[in-house]
Amino acid sequence: MNPVYLDCNATTPLEPEVRDVLFRYLTDEFGNEGSRTHEYGARAKQAVQRARYQIAGVVGATRDEVIFTSGATESNNIAILGLAEAGLDSGRTHVITSAIEHKAVLEPFEALERRGFEVTRLGSDGSGRVDPAELAAALRPETLLVSVMQVNNETGVRQPLAEIATVLKDHFAYFHTDAAQGFGKDLETLRNPRIDLISVSGHKLFAPKGIGALILRRRGYARPPLKPLMQGGGQERGLRPGTLPVALIAALGTASEVAVRDHGKRVAQCRKIREQALAAFAPLSPQIAGDPDQVVAHVLNLAFSDLDSEALMVALKDLIAISNGSACTSSSYTPSHVLRAMGMSEDEANCHVRLSWCHLTPEVDWAAVAERIQSLR
User: Per the confidence metrics, is the pTM higher than 0.70?
Assistant: First the structure.
């Protein structure tokens, strides 16, 4: 038998309803959304517009504020690097992010730095959260952008977006959040109208890989002054050219709608799994990363005394499939930059593993998992 998959923060399985929609638009309704001379194109356009509405509904935006991308990495790059020209033209060349962001945010900020921007990186502590007071102290009149993620991909810790929005209430700076891990799972946070830019990833929300969105809220009638990173075609208001992948878009739209509809049931199921895991692990006295009151229900980042994470993953590989950090850096054996930013030593960080599940996760034999871990000590 296959091990139980417990790496949903890396990618999620397809929701059955989403799979049905995906196959329908891959096989039967295969028209090009840009084809305006026949019914196939018209139906494809209707599917795309419906998906915009479904995605916008998750965060209380309007459908014309949704731009489709290949995923949150591209959305992050457009949101961050797309503001560079506006910043250089206006002299607003100070930007702020946090040290616990995904590489898809950290590396675009490094690119801004090479272009002459000054970057402030907010720290964290053992709670795994950034401090809004540190942000307030870092703000300047020339601050162009603040980018803080919604939910950390390694620890599952929610970041204080509401408090950050309050800090930014009377400031010009654009507020971006990488919502790859929280969109459709932690609903209320993203409905704050002060959040200007929201990056979305389909494959973290039970939709296919290769599709995402960038939500650009207007301020009054003005959109964030983003410039495209690619040229050609004029699709997506000229911001992201290329033929729209209708099947992927329809699937993401369905996944978004179902996420809102089934939110309560999903959270309850994930909490149940978390309680079972913690009960089984309690005799082993695990060290849990992050503030437990701020961790989403489907993530557990923990260590068992001095057991190395690589050895632990190998020992458990026939029972559960887990990770020790971001899938995007899994080829690297360097300690997690997130856990190091939280104050852990290199040795401590190297002992932590991440378990992440979902409402589709089958039963886990937690007793067997705990027994295997105990045998390694």
Answer: yes
